[in-house]
Amino acid sequence: MAKFEGEVDASMRGDLIEYFNRHLTCAGMAKYLARAAPSLAAGKILLIVKASANMVDYQSVLTLIGLKQVFGTRVTVAFPIDYIYSDWAGASEELYGRGFGYTRVLAPSLRNGNEVRAEEVTLSSDYLSEFETIVVGSVTRNSRLARKLLLIHPAAKTVWIHGEDHEPAVDEVEEYRRLGVAVFARELSAGLAGRGPHG
Known about the structure:
Helix 2 (26-36) crosses helix 3. By secondary structure, this protein is an alpha/beta fold. It starts with 9 loop residues before the first helix and ends in a 6-residue tail after the last helix. The chain contains eight helices and five strands.
């Protein structure tokens, strides 16, 4: 491993900050998703994250935060999550990981109507037709729902998030390719990346 000795000059610090903001933030991740799945930039987005407070899927919730930061109220959340907004009055100590990195990070103005009312949306074909893209967070935990939605909404305008600590199995990657959905995995080895749709 290369070892760096000496001081970091202003130019290098600027480069590191630019790299961090471009690639290692929620907004940076959302912009990457939009480049890889262009339908995200084209219209309304429905994000489906059935996140339990005691077992949060970080990848899905951080993706939600990033999409809200980039696309604002164009992003509708099917199952409202209140702890991501700065006016949340709950106790983060009771959340998974004590809420580190995902609590109270968004302005309340980014809520959509159903979030303000704390109402879950009805995933009917009529309602889903309003959206250009559907994003399903934690596809491994919501696989039945994700596949059901493919009967209503085009696979080419569907994004699945695989946020588990382990990479998807080879047969899962092959299924993702066959279905034609864009899948973003938190963990993906070089071998699987060559076989799968997105990594």
